[in-house]
Each structure stands twice: as C-alpha cells, then as structure tokens.
Design brief:
eight-stranded parallel barrel; 17 helices; seven-stranded antiparallel sheet; alpha/beta; 613 residues; 27 strands; 21% strand; Immunoglobulin-like
C-alpha cells in the first residue's frame, strides 16, 4: 500500500473517514487486540497498523463512499461492524457503510438558531409521526408546525437499533442514523428544511447505557463499560475508571458529530442521573463544551432529563456546574397530572395538584429542591428559561398503561385551561406530537426484540407499571399491550387527517399570544398567588408594555366580592379587560362572563383567562 504524503484528514477519533483525494482512512480502538484488519465488501482483509494507546489505523485507496466494511480482530472467526459506523444499512448486525458527509449540499449557511426565550419545543418520534415513518414524510409536515407557532423540533433518539420499530432508547450504533427512517442524507434534508422554516432541531441522545442487542463496543474494548456503577439497564458506561480516556473521547465526539455533520441545534440528554462520573471534569460539562465548539456563530441548546433534579447541571462551569442550558421539569407534569386526573398513584403520590404547587412552579421551577430526602437541590438561582415544562411527553403518556393522552384523562375545560398555563408559562413549553390537535392515537411503549429478550422486555414493562395501584391487579396486567407486537406500534401512528380544529385553534392562538403580545413576547417579571385550592393567578409585569394577568380556575365558578390579593390590583388609573379566554366557542368552550364588574370578580370554572389593561 503506498504511503500517504500527508496525515489523514479526520473529523472523528475513530471510524471510517472518506478522504478528499480519494480512499478512506479507517481507525478503531481495540486495546486488548494484537492485530486488526478491515474487510471491504467481503474481500480479503487489509491489515491496520498499530498505533499508541491501543488504536489501529490504515488508509485504503480502493475504498470510498458506499463501500461496505467490517473489522476483524486477531484473525478471529467473526468480522464485526464498526462501533463508530456512520451507517448500518442492514441493521446493527450487518456491515457498516462508508459515508462522506461533505457530499450533502446544505442551504442553511445563514442560520443562527433560536434563542432559549423563543423556544417552543415539539417532541417527535419519527417512526410514528407519519404513516410512512420516514424523515422524508416528516419533512413534508414541517411547514404546518412552523405555521402553528412551534419553533423547535426535539427528535427522539435515532441511533441505529435492532428490530422493525422502537422508541430508540436502546440504540447501539451511536453515529449511525437508523435505517428505519431513511438514509443519512434524508435526516440532513429534514434539518436543512427545518432551518429554512425557522425551526431549530434538537436530538435526544442516550449516554447512560446501550441497548442489549447489537452492542459491539465491548467486543472491541471491555473498558467501554464498568461494574463500578450500575443502572437499571445493566452496566454503566465507563467515564471515570481505568482506560476511560478513549471512552470519554468517543462520547464527546458523538455529541459534536450531530452538531457538526447534521447541523442539529443541540441535544436532549436522556436520564443523566444514570451517567456516573467522579472525575474533575464531568463528562456532561465536556459534552456541553464540545457542542458549543461544533456550532460557531450559532445558538445551541442542551437540556437534561434528571430524576434527581440536580440544579448544578444547569449552572455555568464557573459556578461549579456543567454548563447545560435547561432541565426537564417532571414536577410540572406530575402536579398537572394529579390536578387533571385526580390520581395520586406511584410516583405521583408526593403531588397534590393544588394552586400552591402551580404558584411555586412558576416562581421556583422545581417543587422538590431537597426538602424531602435526596430528591432535588436548591434551584432558586435558576431563571424560568432553565426549565422545560410539559403536560405530556413520550414517557408519561405511555406510563398511563393504555397510552392515553392527557386530553383523555381530564375534562375538556380543565385541559384547555392547563394548556394555557403551559403555553404562557415563563418556562420553555414542550408539546408531544399530536398534542396540538388532540390526537386519538395512544402512545405506548414498543420495542421489537425477538425470543427471550422480547419476553424479558414485556415482563419488565409490566413490573414497572405495577407501581400504579390501578395497573397492578392481575386483570390489568393481563390487559397491557405487548411492546413487541407490531399492532402495538401500529396503533401509535398519528392520523393527521383526523385533526381536532378546536384544539389546533387553541394552540395556535396561545402560541401567537406568547410570541406577539407586547408583554408575553417581551421581557417581564413574574409573580404568582393562589386564590383557592384549585384557582391561581400569574401576573406578568411588563414595564412600559403594561401588565398581564393569567387566571386559572380548575374548580367551579368563583365569585369574589372583595379579595385581599394585591396581584389582582390594576396599576393606578387602569382597569382590567379580558384579552383571551379558554372558553371561546372556537376552542369548544361555552362562553365567558365579564370577569370584573364594579370591583367584584367572577372567574368561570374549568377555564383560564388572560387580562390586560
């Protein structure tokens, strides 16, 4: 093989890299191996040269984009797919394919991103978002989301996983967009089109474990995993033990890869409470830095799911934090779920769904900040835009057992009122796909695993749901949907032809109010107060733009002749007037009485009102 006249050009520390002058440079980390080779399209192996630190590499002139390849270690009987493959056209167990990211013609050179204050996030599962289940089909529906007022798509994980369908959280090829939704350039077209419409795109990534089927990382290096820590999914990833340096490099590179090669605008980090790292430079802080470096001149956004509610993750590194932008706020969801459904089972038991909780959520973000046990830590210093809030997401819908969406669990009026609280919240609102039109399709847990693994997944899912008393009885356990049944997946596919126009109007008008109103769309200071157990208000102080009141009443009609709540008082010389009501007939409501007359207040039941001056 002829020697190269210059070092290979590489974007990633490992994997296959197409070279500008032709050929492909292959590199892998296999510290326990004595020898390694690459096999191209089933031909004779090409030896890779050993490098310091357990790496092997070689430039192969006869390879190029589209070449399929595998690696063979120590002359073993089985050739393995590349753990840093950019494409697995036949799934995790098949050969890898060389991809040249430079061949795609981007049109988003002027894109600068969406500021956090303007984010309205739409969580999307590509496989069930359309009947086709493809990036191409989802791309065609982006204009409707932009017109509605969505500003950001959050895509559920797309790293290659086995089977015909799944949520994506059992991904095993972290650099390879799944074959189930199309080719890599189809994903690039989705992002490019989104940017042209003013939509940012985030990717949900899983850095706490790998799926149980198709994970070849430990075949190359057992040090990718560690028994020093454990997760509910098995061994943890090794970010702080012996030989963790290349492991950290692999995952940090993956975070930057999605920003660099696919132009994603940021990441949602799954279950960060199960990412263990005791090193001085926490892996999450390193990931945040890499994301910023990969997007010069662009606004990026990194949010974390964290059941422990560790506020430090969203603090800057200079203040001892990890530099993430926001945290998912399950407290918001859980309080709302209790208020709307009346159920306090399982992990909902600590919540009451009262006005006091919704006042605290608006003021302080998390409800639980360490006052009971180990859940949460002080977050008073975090502004509202550090919290992503939601009435439903992929997990919480599926955890209802039957996959019922929120509007099926609440009265119509209360659901509209709580939607107003969500979309006018000072936090960053998130909608789950189909929420905007009250989709009839459920969202269940589905994962296509064969044989014994499928049985274990099915039984594990049933055990998890048994924490809810209403789902623990044998009759209910027997009625649970089988995650591996194709019919379970099919039932979750959205029907965009069956759209509730009243729900769409509600979401469109609220998002316009959030975006265009002089106060909601500008800079404001917020305060909140409870008026009754199920009735509360938020006051938005807009300075020269005036003030706004959001009144939410989940109970019966309220009449106040006199009320000693100063937040209800209009500025000197002013009088409140009704600007918006969730009881408008175009939303399916029954009309709204005048809320203020001769100093007395009438707040209709199961409704939300916006008042201005």
């Amino acid at each position: 093989m002829p020697e190269r006249s210059s070092p290979p050009l590489r974007r990633l520390p490992v994997g296959a890299e197409a070279q500008p002058e032709g050929g492909v440079h292959f590199r892998l980390w296999a510290p326990a191996a004595r020898a390694a080779a690459v096999e191209l399209d089933g031909r004779d192996p090409v030896p890779l040269a050993a490098e310091p630190g357990g790496y092997f590499a070689a430039a192969v002139a006869e390879a190029g984009p589209g070449t399929r390849y595998r690696f063979r270690l120590d002359g073993g009987e089985r050739a393995l797919p590349d753990p840093a493959s950019r494409c697995q056209p036949d799934g995790p167990h098949g050969p890898s394919e060389v991809i040249d990211p430079g061949r795609f013609a981007w049109s988003d050179a002027g894109w600068r991103g969406v500021p956090p204050r303007r984010l309205v996030i739409y969580e999307m599962h590509v496989g069930s978002f359309t009947p086709e289940g493809s990036w191409a089909a989802a791309t065609a529906r982006l204009p409707a989301l932009a017109e509605l007022g969505i500003t950001c798509i959050e895509m559920m994980p797309v790293a290659e996983f086995p089977g015909r369908f799944g949520w994506g959280y059992d991904g095993v090829d972290l650099f390879a967009p799944t074959r189930l939704y199309g080719r890599p350039d189809d994903l690039r077209r989705f992002v490019d089109r989104a940017h042209a419409l003013g939509l940012a795109v985030l990717l949900d990534v899983v850095y706490n474990h790998l799926g149980p089927d198709g994970n070849y990382l430990t075949a190359f290096a057992p040090a990718y995993m560690t028994r020093r820590h454990a997760t509910e999914w098995g061994e943890a990833l090794n970010f702080d033990g012996p030989d963790s340096g290349p492991v950290r490099e692999f995952f940090i590179a993956n975070a930057g890869y999605w920003i660099d090669e696919y132009h994603f605008d940021g990441l949602r980090l799954d279950a960060t409470h199960r990412i263990y790292d005791t090193s001085p430079d926490h892996i999450l802080a390193a990931i945040a830095r890499r994301v910023r470096e990969a997007a010069p001149g662009r606004t990026t956004f990194i949010a974390a799911e964290n059941e422990a509610q560790e506020a430090r993750l969203a603090r800057p590194a200079a203040a001892g934090g990890c530099g993430l932008d926001a945290l998912w706020n399950d407290d918001f969801h859980h309080a709302a779920r209790v208020a709307l459904s009346g159920r306090r089972e399982g992990y909902y038991r600590p919540y009451r769904g009262t006005a006091g909780e919704f006042v605290a959520l608006a003021r302080h973000g998390y409800l639980y900040q360490g006052q009971h046990g180990t859940r949460g830590s002080a977050a008073f210093d975090l502004p509202p835009e550090r919290f992503v809030v939601y009435l439903q997401n992929h997990d919480q819908i599926a955890h209802s057992g039957a996959g019922l969406r929120g509007h099926r669990l609440a009265s119509p009026g209360c659901w509209r009122a709580m939607t107003a609280y969500l979309l006018l919240s000072p936090g960053i609102p998130l909608l789950f796909q189909g929420q905007e039109f009250s989709a009839a399709a459920p969202f269940l847990y589905f994962a296509d695993h064969p044989g014994e693994l499928g049985r274990l997944v099915r039984e594990g899912r049933a055990r998890f749901l048994a924490q809810f008393a209403s789902l623990a009885a044998p009759r209910m356990q027997a009625a649970l949907d089988d995650p591996g049944d194709p019919e379970t997946f099919r039932r979750c596919i959205l029907d965009h032809a069956d759209r509730d126009g009243e729900a769409l109007a509600l979401h469109r008008d609220l998002l316009a109010l959030r975006r265009e109103d002089a106060v909601f769309g500008g800079d404001y200071r917020i305060d909140a107060a409870a008026l009754a157990r199920d009735c509360w208000l938020l006051r938005y102080f807009g300075g020269g733009s005036g003030d706004r009141l959001l009144l939410v009443n989940l109970g019966r009609d309220r009449f106040f002749e006199r009320i000693g709540e100063p937040l209800l008082a209009p500025p000197d010389g002013g009088a409140w007037r009704l600007l918006w009501s969730s009881e408008e007939p175009r939303y399916g409501g029954g009309g709204t009485p005048e809320p203020v007359a001769d100093g007395a207040w009438h707040l209709p039941g199961h409704a939300a009102l916006v008042l201005g001056l």
